[in-house]
Design goal:
Blueprint: H1 8-19, E1 24-26, E2 33-34, E3 39-40, E4 45-48, E5 54-64, E6 79-80, H2 81-94, E7 98-108, E8 121-123, E9 126-134, H3 135-141, E10 143-146, E11 151-153, H4 156-162, E12 164-165, H5 166-170
Parallel strand pairs: 5-7
Antiparallel strand pairs: 1-4, 2-3, 4-5, 6-11, 7-9, 8-9, 9-12, 10-11
Length: about 170
């Protein structure tokens, strides 16, 4: 992995990409494009999926404090409105063949977690599981979490209905 300054969730996701031999480009998320009045938040990764598809990814790191991933319960999935606007803007700007998605990187807070058969990445002493959700699905079902902080989220049943393993996102 190249960038040791990235947060541990992004490093873990990059490790997963390397392990799975998924071609990708890492974006410089510290820069924004646009004018001072209206800028667009950069995404984190551009993945080169089969059949010429490109997936624009924004990684969101969360801690999973539960004991099992069966039923995908207890998983936080909030993002900022700026995250949603940024992914949508990039998808539109990059055009056909590009799709945008959030990747939620969950770090297990406990050592005795039942991962329910999901792909687990071990990085140092931590275990991570990744779930993706396409921007269309997220935006269609999002609801306000905090007006003050400009965050949105999905109801648990909506998240469970639309969250997919990364292998499905890449297929």
């Amino acid at each position: 992995m190249r960038d040791s300054s990235a947060n541990h969730y992004e490093r873990a996701f990059e490790g997963w990409l390397i392990d799975q031999q998924v071609p990708y480009v890492r974006a410089d998320e510290h820069k924004r494009i646009g004018t001072m009045r209206q800028s667009v938040k950069n995404f984190d990764f551009l993945l080169y999926a089969p059949l010429g598809r490109r997936i624009i990814v924004e990684v969101k790191g969360r801690t999973f404090r539960g004991t099992t991933l069966a039923g995908l319960k207890g998983l936080e999935c909030w993002v900022t409105r700026d995250d949603v606007r940024g992914l949508r803007a990039w998808q539109k700007a990059l055009g056909p063949g590009h799709e945008a998605a959030f990747v939620f990187a969950y770090r297990a807070a406990r050592v005795d977690v039942d991962f329910d058969g999901r792909d687990v990445l071990r990085l140092d002493r931590d275990c991570y599981v990744f779930l993706g959700i396409r921007i269309e699905d997220y935006q269609r079902h999002m609801r306000v979490r905090s007006r003050r902080w400009q965050t949105v989220t999905l109801a648990a049943d909506r998240f469970r209905a639309h969250a997919i393993d990364l292998s499905a996102l890449l297929a």
